[in-house]
Design goal:
This protein has 339 residues and is of the alpha/beta class. It is 38% helix and 18% strand. Helix 9 crosses helix 10. The two termini are 31 Å apart.
């Protein structure tokens, strides 16, 4: 490993230890970052800043995207011991406008006593967290699959004392992406959680859904996977490649769009506008994902692939239910990460 790369990785570990010490945590021991580390492609941690408690605000330079990517990292309970990593992907907004795991759920308190590093990338609105064919005039260069599966994991493991065991979960748009990422990098994720998503992307309905999501953020789906007949659409359709998921622990959930116990003013803290959104667009979206999820359930049964499905009799496309899904899927993730 080049001397410059070794120095950079040691520096990252030292910075993390100092930042965590300032935040009141016990600093992690600095191991030899060259041990077992792959050759660098130029991606590196640019900065780390302390947040609240064990939160670190991390900036990583992605060579694939030729741009910095922001992360929220919540370190494991005992940072003196190795810990696996759970990657949590935000939905179509990429975490903007307050629509992210940290702001909308109890992810911080829920994992406070758990021996796992939580990594939440910020950004990627309308991107499907995939590698695009062409740079988009509005959304720019999108190489999220390369970043998330090749560039980021070794940096996280080296800096935060990772065990090499990973799980990934995502909501809405990202509930599709987690399958695509797992298929892109076989063996990288031991478990995945897909909350309220549609994984079919290459049939007419799937292509229409993808186009609507990308277009909502002013992107051009032709720049993502090309025209509808381009084979990249089928290559990125997890429904067509589900047979390759045999060795991954799967948790898949959806509501039906009918108002449920979390669709009340109490649950939205008196925010009437938010509740109206849940009961209108949130109801429609969840009704669609319900159909998609039932199709996926039938497909996995045909292939004899084990999976845990949580199909609620009610519930909209909203954060309260995704928080429940995270709680319910964690025991499965934990078992997979520890095996």
């Amino acid at each position: 490993m080049p001397v410059r790369q070794r120095i950079r990785r040691v520096a990252c570990r030292l910075i993390a230890a100092v930042v965590l010490s300032i935040a009141g945590a016990t600093p992690v021991a600095v191991a030899d970052p060259a041990a077992g580390a792959p050759e660098s492609d130029g991606s590196h941690i640019v900065s780390m800043r302390p947040g609240v408690g064990r939160q670190l605000l991390v900036t990583v330079y992605s060579t694939a995207m030729a741009a910095p990517v922001e992360l929220e990292v919540y370190t494991a309970q005992d940072i003196s011991r190795p810990a696996p990593v759970l990657y949590l992907l935000n939905g179509a907004s990429g975490g903007s406008e307050g629509s992210n795991w940290a702001d909308q759920t109890d992810v911080v308190s829920f994992f406070a006593d758990k021996q796992v590093n939580i990594v939440i990338p910020i950004g990627g609105s309308g991107s499907y967290f995939t590698d695009w064919h062409t740079d988009d005039p509005v959304l720019g260069r999108q190489r999220w699959a390369t970043f998330l599966t090749r560039e980021l994991p070794p940096l996280i493991d080296t800096t935060f004392h990772g065990t090499g065991a990973n799980a990934i979960a995502g909501i809405s748009m990202a509930a599709t992406s987690v399958f695509q990422l797992a298929l892109t990098a076989p063996g990288l994720y031991r478990a995945l959680g897909s909350y309220s998503g549609c994984i079919r992307t290459s049939d007419p309905q799937g292509q229409a859904m993808v186009a609507a999501v990308v277009g909502r953020w002013k992107g051009n789906p032709l720049n993502m996977w090309g025209p509808p007949q381009d084979p990249t659409w089928t290559a990125n359709d997890p429904y067509l490649h589900a047979q390759d998921l045999h060795h991954t622990t799967l948790y898949i959930s959806t509501g039906t769009g009918q108002p449920g116990p979390l669709d009340t003013l109490d649950q939205t803290r008196g925010d009437a506008g938010k509740l109206v959104g849940q009961l209108t667009s949130g109801a429609l979206l969840e009704a669609i994902t319900s159909v998609c999820t039932l199709q996926l359930r039938d497909r996995l049964r045909e292939l004899n692939i084990p999976a845990t499905f949580e199909i609620r009799p009610s519930g909209t496309h909203s954060w309260g239910y995704w928080q429940q899904d995270l709680h319910n899927s964690w025991p499965l993730f934990e078992a997979a990460l520890d095996r």
